[in-house]
Design brief:
The chain has 258 residues and is an alpha+beta fold. The chain contains 10 helices and 10 strands. Strands 1-5-6 form a 3-stranded antiparallel sheet. A hairpin with a 2-residue loop joins strand 5 and strand 6.
């Protein structure tokens, strides 16, 4: 686009981000029972045609010597007869954020609520009460990479003009990605004065998308069991090593987890 506008001899159009706040309100309930949270998660994972299933992990075995600098794992899942597959198929996994990191973020972001705070919501396929901890752990990609569009939406809430310039500066985003591996959570805490309210926060943070993994087993040889061979993907920024969301989750799962 940088070359299109000059060629057309017209100025680029001004980008005005549009926010559609999520329909949410705080509930008078102090806490939700675990069974209520599970019911809401079931509602979410079966909305919008996802039809996701919960399956137990049979084993999670590291394949390489501890001295080897890469982490390959064989993960066996008891998928049963309800999830048949063929050669060449892939399995989509919905990752989730680390609940402890979610709790730390919410406590630092705003003293008025935390991961236990209950809200009534009518979005994401959920119609009812859910804790903020569940939303930020399973639904929102809080620790994903911030996009240009996200930064533009965040800038609409910034009142300090100098800070707003920094938010909208693509060089800042590139530099922080190289230096710290900046996440959406990092950006929200770095520009804390912008402070979008909860209905907007839930709308501008992207949803967690499933990641597809090639199935390594053969259906005839491994009936009712799906086996994955996963490389725990890591990358480096100036401040150290970083691990992808799904890989970070998978490397911590043990037999009996789901």
């Amino acid at each position: 686009l940088d070359t299109v506008w000059p060629a057309l001899e017209v100025p680029p159009p001004a980008e005005v981000p549009h926010n559609t706040p999520v329909k949410v309100e705080f509930s008078p309930k102090a806490i939700l029972h675990a069974s209520d949270e599970e019911r809401v998660l079931h509602m979410y994972y079966n909305s919008d045609g996802m039809n996701a299933k919960v399956v137990p992990i049979l084993s999670n075995q590291k394949m390489c010597d501890e001295k080897y600098n890469r982490d390959f794992r064989t993960i066996r899942l008891n998928t049963g007869e309800s999830m048949p597959y063929e050669l060449g198929d892939a399995l989509e996994i919905f990752p989730h954020n680390d609940p402890q990191k979610v709790s730390a973020f919410l406590h630092e972001y705003c003293p008025d609520y935390d991961e236990r705070t209950v809200v009534k919501i009518h979005d994401f396929g959920i119609d009812g009460e859910v804790s903020l901890g569940t939303l930020f752990t399973y639904v929102l990609d809080l620790f994903g990479k911030p996009s240009k569009h996200f930064m533009q939406q965040l800038a609409t809430f910034e009142t300090d003009e100098e800070e707003k310039k920094t938010i909208l500066d693509l060089n800042f985003l590139k530099a922080e990605a190289k230096r710290t591996g900046i996440t959406i959570a990092d950006a929200l805490l770095r520009f804390k004065k912008a402070h979008p309210p909860i209905p907007v926060l839930l709308s501008i943070i992207p949803r967690i998308k499933p990641r597809a993994y090639s199935i390594a087993s053969a259906p005839l040889a491994s009936k009712n069991v799906t086996e994955l061979l996963v490389l725990i993907d890591t990358w480096w920024c100036d401040e150290g090593e970083r691990v992808g969301l799904t890989c970070d989750m998978l490397r911590q799962k043990v037999a009996g987890d789901h």
